[in-house]
Amino acid sequence: MNDRINLSDIEGQEDWFTYERYGDDIFNGRTAKVFVNQRPWEFPNGTWEYRYIFELPEKTVIAGAYIKGGPSDAQFTLPLLTQIMNTLVFQ
Asked: Contact, 22 vs 32, CB < 8 A?
């Protein structure tokens, strides 16, 4: 995967609005597309933004979180986020 997309339409702000497409993850039996922004706007350096997109038959669900320190070495860690995401139930 690892495609990158810039969502900014303002010159000079590309770094804060660029998302990288990671591989899909499965949470509680549902597949999610994963997008990560390693420099989200108005957050301290070292904060990573995770967006999960679940495309269901009748709706699209977007879930996300901000993690300080990237995928590890943080108070709110990626393994903890994964554990939380696995509790989601879509109806």
From this structure: no
The confidence score (pLDDT) of residue 44 equals 86
CA angle 53, 56, 61 (to 5 degrees): 40
Task: Return the DSSP state at 83.
Answer: H
- 75 with 67: CB under 8 angstroms? no
Q: What tokens appear for 27 in the block?
A: 């949470």
pLDDT value, residue 71: 59
The parts of the chain modelled with pLDDT lower than 50 are none
Is-above-0.85 flag for pTM? no
Compute the distance between CA of residue 74 and CA of residue 10 in angstroms, rounded to an integer: 31
Residues 75 and 68: beta-carbon distance below 8 Å: yes
| DSSP tag of 28 | T
Domain ranges of the chain: 4-85
